[in-house]
Write a structure and sequence with these properties.
Elements lengths: L1 E8 L8 H9 L4 E3 L13 H6 L1 H14 L3 E3 L3 E5 L2 E10 L2 E7 L5 H5 L2 E2 L6 E4 L2 E5 L8 H8 L5 E6 L9 H19 L2 E6 L3 E2 L2 E2 L5 E4 L2 E5 L9 E8 H22 L1
Parallel strand pairs: 1-2, 2-3, 5-7, 9-10, 10-11
Antiparallel strand pairs: 1-16, 3-5, 4-5, 5-6, 8-9, 11-14, 12-13, 14-15
Helix pairs in contact: 5-6
Length: 261
Amino acid sequence: MLTKVVCVQAVLGHRLSLEEKLHVLKQRPDFVCLSEYCLLDESVEDYSQAGDRYAEYLAYFRKLSIELSACLIAGTLVEREDDRLYNTSYVIDRGVIIGTYRKRYPVQGELSKGISPGSRPLCLTVDDIRISVLICGDVFYPELYDEIGQAGVDIVFVPTTSLYRPDDSLSQKRYRDRKYFIDGAERTGGYVVKVCGVGRVFDKPLQGRSLVTAPWGILKQVSLYEEADQRILTVTLDIAEVREFRRKYVRSNIASDRAMN
């Protein structure tokens, strides 16, 4: 079983042009993933203002999923419930909202400015493919990968924003890719799709290194020389292959545990 995924690494606040939509449509994607806070532009000064635009952002996402004729992992938006704000990702299948996920581990900057943590995982089946969502800093907590791995997830989507690090070395970047994404794919026994935003968030510069990885290594990645650029990545994932890997991996681990006991 093959499925096609399109990753849209775009400047925050950028809405897809007609040309970009046609480019995506020509890929005939099953899934399209956007970045964390993908619609925040320079006019939005804080999370409360972002929450005020919730209805506008959600309407755009629903329309976009119809236009792209795909299941859209709609980056994230700020959702207000009572007196709390959440960093929430919507999964929208051709205009129909089929699931939501609230970031469970907001970073300190989010917590200090009003973003509350979510409390529940999200696992969905879309056209016989089991998917899940984590958001950015959630990947720092490997137990979340373990949790959704137990649900037999085939693809984990990770909308992300990553602050620019002027002193970042190539080895440090590779280390983080291994620690947070390749290892996450190994833990779940599924594919991990990280989609980054570029530009600025609340006047802080971002770097984007979107990637798609399997448990056995990175399949596709934005070049180190394109970390500040808009890029669209397309990858075809073999679901049967990763399920076979998961079956053998789990079986070999069980056998190993029994031998040790």
